[in-house]
Amino acid sequence: MKQLPNEFYHLMEQLQAVDFVLVELTLYLDTHDQDTEAINQFNHFAKERKRLKKLIEANYGPLMQFGNSYSGTPWNWNDPPWPWQL
């Protein structure tokens, strides 16, 4: 498997942390749908997730299939490491 720069792994760790926060906030908001502060936190982290995803994909290739991420040329879906290999 090709070795990627440490920055890639750092960015992926940040993305995973943001994803965790978003899952937890989603679960909380399912039962506290009027909590404005939690909604603002969710929106903040949703924006941060979008920023991180865009940064990672621009430098290291797509993260999601089925039209959720664009492919580079040549087709780069088979370029490791895949997210589950980290």
In short:
The chain is 59% helix and 0% strand.
Order of helices and strands: HH
Q: What is the subunit arrangement here? A: single chain
The structural class is: mainly alpha
Strand content: under 5%
- End-to-end Cα distance: 11 Å
Radius of gyration: 15 Å
Poorly predicted runs are none
Largest beta sheet, briefly? none
Shape descriptor: elongated
Q: Taking all residues together, what is the mean pLDDT?
A: 85
The total count of strands amounts to 0
Work out the count of structural domains: 1
Helical percent range?
55-70%
SS field, number of helical segments: 2
What distinguishing features does this structure have?
86 residues, mainly alpha, 2 helices
Word description of this protein:
This protein is 59% helix and 0% strand. With 86 residues, the protein is mostly helical. The protein has one domain (6-78). The longest helix has 26 residues, at 6-31. The chain is elongated, with a radius of gyration of 15 Å. 3% of the residues are buried.
Question: What is the secondary structure topology, with strand pairs?
Answer:
Layout: H1 6-31, H2 36-60
Helix pairs in contact: 1-2
